[in-house]
Amino acid sequence: MLETLASYITFDLLNLEQGSRFGGALEFFIYDTIKIFLLLSVIIFVISVIRSYFPPEKTRRILSHKKEFIGNILASLLGMVTPFCSCSAVPLFIGFVEAGVPLGVTFSFLISSPMVNEVAVILLWGMFGWKIAAIYMGTGLLVAFFGGLIIGKLKLEEWVEGYVYQFRSGQAQEMKIKVFRERLEYARENTADIIRKVWLFIIIAIGIGGFIHGYVPQDFLVYYAGRGNPFAVPIAVAVGVPLYSNAAGVIPIVYALMEKGLSIGTILAFMMAVTALSLPEMIILRKVLKVPLLAVFVGIMAVTITAVGYVFNALL
Question: Helix crossing, 86-99 with 162-174: angle to 10°?
Answer without folding.
Answer: 70
